[in-house]
């Protein structure tokens, strides 16, 4: 990175689901940036979008648009990220990429600032990866408990929102909801399937349904989302052998991923200690008084920065296992916020 | 039970969510009954409802209405079941009760015909209990795998439909869906909470949300639904020490409960063998070709009798653990169908 003057930031994918939230965050947070450049596909070139209270013209992503960039926040589809991240890095930018392309690479750190900020310092390819939004829904809370008790295994079931699939996911749910509202659908085999027009990015209707298949298929019946959560959790925690079982399920929620977590530790756990750890963990809000209606839900976590954690229980048969439920905004901590936190780290490594 | 002639069947709660499905089942199945008597609260007395192709007048539940009944199918709220089940039993009826009142009692068998039909023969109080709809979504598939490999522990996360809360749950979801359809709600903290009028039986909005709290609270942070699934699974399988961890979550689905299951066995498992076991198990349909879009969803399972099982995977870190996903209609196998199966067993113990 150049020294002297405030660093130039580029936002790639500024018009997308994540990019839009990111522009909002850049307007709210302490302003450490010089120029902020908004990039997207040629389709969007010339549009004006607000950031830091000003209207900024969107540029088409090309070589010229990447000149003089210090930090480049990539929120592009996988193919575009694969093509352009090495170009931006070669031009001297630190690339912070939220696509799936680089997360598993050995010479690309995968960073969650609350857990492994140090890893962002070593970036042989000039690229830092930000995890999948489902990993980010749980990892900060799990990491805090791991520091205290030593994690031994995880069994995870997810409740993933449609904006995790970008604008297309949101459009699909909204269209399908309009098609089923005011009907008595959802009571006969396949009636929802017949009524909704267009499944969008999903292999089954998402309105009035849950879809236990997120991402693409892999061998042995696992999905890419399930394998990603497993591999990323291991990499971020630095535990390459950690047993992790994941079932990823899409639910008819607009924004806010949730995860039911069964975590086993090397040591005995207690609920009061878990409450203390979670309440003290940066980036976590404890929300656990179910008798008073306090538990995390996506409708409450959406639009907020932290991971919401609650429903904390000790397994009844295993004093070393804890059950809990977490919710996080998949567009904020799940993507835009985590990448901007990494950018701030990189810009002023302190 | 009287001998000679076809037995008289009473349906208590004939106007409810379960009762309505039950009338449909009685019309479809082999007809082993003499008179079928429909009972509900005095509010419904005099209404005419169809069963076996005839319109039958609903009677108010009282002592007289229970005279001469051989088998009484109870689908009433807990308090009414607690009051009337002993009365019906004292009058000589075999009571088959789907409420939560008697399931945990030592002298009341808890029966799932595919698994423990024999238990229905010993009924010291004249009462047979039918399990909770969430237990019934998973127990037939889990029981089949247990017979083959010997179950060692379960970690369960549920995706429960609103009709599990009866007519009031369905009305609440439909009203809230009408309130959010055509809006851009679900993107700001609490916007759904502010927009929906009336939470019905739920402690948080159910449209565009998931609610990780089903049933009532108990000590230690568990809910009654979670404790019920645990206790009932142990009782039905005859494994009073089985480790079971459950997280119960309500989702915006009308009918069809789903469960993500992590099951550990005494023996090594394989996916092909699991497929064989599930495909051969009575009451289970195997639906597991995710590459071709085949996996169980509530939208497909609703209105059908069997448990749909799919997404079968062997845990990557544990050759003795299997992950899978099941869906079942909570009003059919989850309540009406299981109770009518028990009734048929009791009427002709064969
Ligand atoms: N959504 C989430 O919760 C989430 C969470 C974590 C990570 N991610 C990752 O973040 C990335 C963006 O996701 P999203 O949900 O924001 O997707 P999205 O809503 O579909 O937005 C895609 C963005 O990429 C731009 N784009 C597409 N093709 C391009 C190209 N060839 N050249 C330049 N720009 C191009 C689009 O610009 P136009 O408007 O001009 O088409 C748009 O700004 C993906 O890699 C995704 O996996 C998403
Ligand atoms: N819904 C499920 O998925 C499910 C699954 C398993 C078990 N169960 C159990 O099945 C039972 C019924 O559930 P549901 O969902 O069908 O409830 P529901 O839709 O609310 O129906 C309740 C039924 O009980 C009748 N009733 C209420 N109070 C009564 C009284 N004091 N005397 C006589 N009848 C009375 C109602 O008659 P009126 O119409 O006259 O009010 C109605 O027919 C509950 O115990 C529930 O826990 C339900």
UniProtKB/TrEMBL annotation, chains A, B:
Query: Oligomeric state and partners?
Result: Homodimer.
Q: Which residues bind phosphate?
A: 103
Q: Does the keyword Amino-acid biosynthesis apply?
A: yes
Entry binding sites for NADP(+): 15-18, 43-44, 163-164, 330
A GO molecular function assigned to this protein is: aspartate-semialdehyde dehydrogenase activity
The coiled-coil segments of this chain are none
Tell me the function of this protein.
Catalyzes the NADPH-dependent formation of L-aspartate-semialdehyde (L-ASA) by the reductive dephosphorylation of L-aspartyl-4-phosphate.
Give the annotated active site: 133, 257
State the family named in the UniProt similarity comment for this chain. Belongs to the aspartate-semialdehyde dehydrogenase family.
Q: What residues bind substrate, as annotated?
A: 160, 250
| Domain Semialdehyde dehydrogenase NAD-binding: residue ranges | 8-123
Which keywords does the record carry? Answer: Amino-acid biosynthesis, Diaminopimelate biosynthesis, Lysine biosynthesis, Methionine biosynthesis, NADP, Oxidoreductase, Threonine biosynthesis
Q: Which reaction does it catalyse?
A: L-aspartate 4-semialdehyde + phosphate + NADP(+) = 4-phospho-L-aspartate + NADPH + H(+)
Q: Supply the SUPFAM superfamilies for this chain.
A: Glyceraldehyde-3-phosphate dehydrogenase-like, C-terminal domain, NAD(P)-binding Rossmann-fold domains
Question: Could you tell me which PANTHER family the record lists for this protein?
Answer: ASPARTATE-SEMIALDEHYDE DEHYDROGENASE, DEHYDROGENASE, PUTATIVE-RELATED
What protein does this entry describe?
A: Aspartate-semialdehyde dehydrogenase
Root EC class: oxidoreductase
Q: In which pathway does it act?
A: Amino-acid biosynthesis; L-methionine biosynthesis via de novo pathway; L-homoserine from L-aspartate: step 2/3; Amino-acid biosynthesis; L-lysine biosynthesis via DAP pathway; (S)-tetrahydrodipicolinate from L-aspartate: step 2/4; Amino-acid biosynthesis; L-threonine biosynthesis; L-threonine from L-aspartate: step 2/5
What EC designation does it have?
A: 1.2.1.11
């Amino acid at each position: 990175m150049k020294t002297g003057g405030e660093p130039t930031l580029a936002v790639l994918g500024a018009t997308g689901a994540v990019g839009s939230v990111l522009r909002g965050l850049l307007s709210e947070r302490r302003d450490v940036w010089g120029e902020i450049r908004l990039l997207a596909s040629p389709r969007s070139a010339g549009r004006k979008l607000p950031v830091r209270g000003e209207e900024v013209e969107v540029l088409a992503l090309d070589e010229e648009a990447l000149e003089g960039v210090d930090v480049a926040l990539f929120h592009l589809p996988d193919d575009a990220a694969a093509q352009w991240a090495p170009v931006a890095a070669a031009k001297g930018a630190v690339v912070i990429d939220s696509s799936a392309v680089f997360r598993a690479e050995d010479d690309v750190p995968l960073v969650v600032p609350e857990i492994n900020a140090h890893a962002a310092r070593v970036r042989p390819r000039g690229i830092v990866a930000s995890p999948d939004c489902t990993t980010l829904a749980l990892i900060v809370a799990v990491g805090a408990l791991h520091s205290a008790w030593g994690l031994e295994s995880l069994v995870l079931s997810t409740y993933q929102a449609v904006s995790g699939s970008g604008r297309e996911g949101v459009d699909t749910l909204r269209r399908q909801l309009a098609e089923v509202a005011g009907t008595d659908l959802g009571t006969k085999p396949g009636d929802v399937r017949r009524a909704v027009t267009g499944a969008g990015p999903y292999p089954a209707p998402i309105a009035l349904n849950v879809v236990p298949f997120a991402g693409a298929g892999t061998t042995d019946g696992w999905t890419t989302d399930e394998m990603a959560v497993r591999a990323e959790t291991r990499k971020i925690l630095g535990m390459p052998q950690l047993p992790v079982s994941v079932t990823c399920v899409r639910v008819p929620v607009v924004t806010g991923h949730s995860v039911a977590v069964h975590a086993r530790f090397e040591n005995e756990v207690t609920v009061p200690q878990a409450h203390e750890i979670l309440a003290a963990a940066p980036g976590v809000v404890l929300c656990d008084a179910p008798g008073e209606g306090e538990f995390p839900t996506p409708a409450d976590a959406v639009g907020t920065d932290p991971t919401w954690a609650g429903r904390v229980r000790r397994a009844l048969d295993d004093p070393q296992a804890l059950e809990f439920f977490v919710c996080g905004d998949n567009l904020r901590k799940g993507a835009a916020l985590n990448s901007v936190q990494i950018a701030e780290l990189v810009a002023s490594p302190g």
